[in-house]
Amino acid sequence: MSGPGRPTAGRASAGAAPVLGLRENLPQFALLVAVNALVGGTLGQERTVLPLLATEEFHLDLYTSALTYIVAFGLSKAAMNYFAGILADRFGRKPVLVAGWLAAVPVPAMLILAPDWSWVVAANVLLGVSQGLTWSIAVMMKMDLVGPSQRGLAMGLNEAAGYLGVAVTALATGYIAAEYGLRPGPFLVGAAYIALGLGMSVVLVRETRGHARAEALGHVDAHEHAHGGLTSGQVFTLTSFRDRSLSSVSQAGMVNNLNDGLAWGLFPVLFASAGLGLGEIGLLAAAYPAVWGAAQIVTGPASDRWGRKWLIAAGMGVQAVGLALVAATQGFGAWLAAAVLLGLGTAMVYPTLLAAIGDVAHPAWRARSVGVYRLWRDGGFAVGALLSGVLADLYGIPAAVAVVAALTAASGAVVALRMRPGDHARR
Q1: DSSP secondary structure string, 143-185?
Q2: What are the Major facilitator superfamily (MFS) profile domain coordinates in residue numbering (predicted)?
Q3: What CA–CA distance (Å, rounded) separates 376 from 368?
């Protein structure tokens, strides 16, 4: 926040350093929140519809085959997350954001016109590229603007906007599909989001790399490796394996999205097999990201106050309970309660993981560290789709869900045992 003798506007006067803080940069921050809601909505167009499209229109019998679009999405998004950080440090944040929206432009038309499943898989490669660039950059730009003191709040607002966008669109497309069919109606919503997001990013979004440079001047190292001169390879190794906190966060992010890939690909099929209609399936598909999105407004700033470690560990445990409830019960009411638990646990984890990366990583290589974390995290989509698809084909969907619940609980235990407490306090 601003202090004595510092300018109060986020855009500094000529020759002055940019000013950090949420209040000082509120108009641009709010704009980026809106942009990320559109990014989430672009993903949400698929959450209810594609699993049913696979079984009802393309007649894919094996779950492993049906989930190939999630594998394609997860791999391309994970790769773009990594390169987003490198590109953002080299060329700036805004050009990468715009490039991400451009990658999404063909996606709705490909999904509407797809004559076979390979088109759907190809569309999800492009969607993964788009999501990896746009969502990663939205995260980085908000971190740039607010500085260290409100990072949890910033990530809570960012992820809340994105996943409320997912939830609202999943619900809306479920009702559109029930009324007008699985194609083209639901994907026209995504086309509108892409047009609006691209226009806002080109015309209204401003570059924020200068804010990161200003923060770097007064940065206090979180550990002995946190100087600004690391290579991209060193950042990868540090974030993935060497640093206790960064590596704990990376594995937890991967497992979190492993169970999200399961929920995305198999839950609608499970619900449909139990006789639920498209409206009920859309509501269940929306409830999980809706609770996830809304609760992050609370859990993000709570991590600023209470710390990251135990909120992450507890959140993984709550997710595991929600998944176990899906595996052990049947019926709309029980599954709705499970979706709420899964959303609440994810809300405890998601913004906190991002804030924890920002706590430890030096501003000079923070964008690259965020990219590495998001590489591991969104690689979880592919791992989750493959693992849950194979298990579901062999043993059924409830067994696949139970195995993923156990993995999620184990991931929380890793965080509890390995992650350093109090890194956020050093900032």
Answers
A1: HHHH-STTHHHHHHHHHHHHHHHHHHHHHHHHHHHHHH-SSSH
A2: 29-424
A3: 13
Instruction: Quick: pLDDT tens for 51-65.
Output: 888 888 888 877 777
Q: What class is the 26-426 domain? A: mainly alpha
Task: Among 113-127, 368-382, 388-402, name the one with the lowest average pLDDT.
Answer: 368-382
In the chain, what is the straight-line distance between the N-terminal and C-terminal CA atoms, in Å? 14
Quick one: residue 59, left, alpha or beta (phi over 0 = left, psi -120 to 50 = alpha)? left
Q: Are the C-beta atoms of residues 406 and 258 closer than 8 Å to each other?
A: no
Give me 265's structure tokens. 């690909």
Please identify which residue in the block is written with the tokens 């804010």.
211
How many C-beta atoms lie closer than 10 Å to residue 183's C-beta?
16
Contact 423, 245 (CB under 8 A): yes
Reading the block at residue 301, the tokens are 């700033």
Q: Are the beta carbons of 402 and 327 closer than 8 angstroms?
A: yes
Q: How far apart are CA 133 and CA 123, in angstroms?
A: 16
pLDDT tens for 73-85 read 889 988 898 888 7
Residue keyed to tokens 């097999």: 273
Quick one: three-class SS letters along 247-315? Answer: HHHHHHHHHHHHHHHHHHHHHHHHHHHCCCCHHHHHHHHHHHHHHHHHHHHHHHHHHHHHCCHHHHHHH
Nearest alpha carbon to residue 340 among 263, 276, 411, 277: 263
The ranges assigned to domains in the chain are 26-426
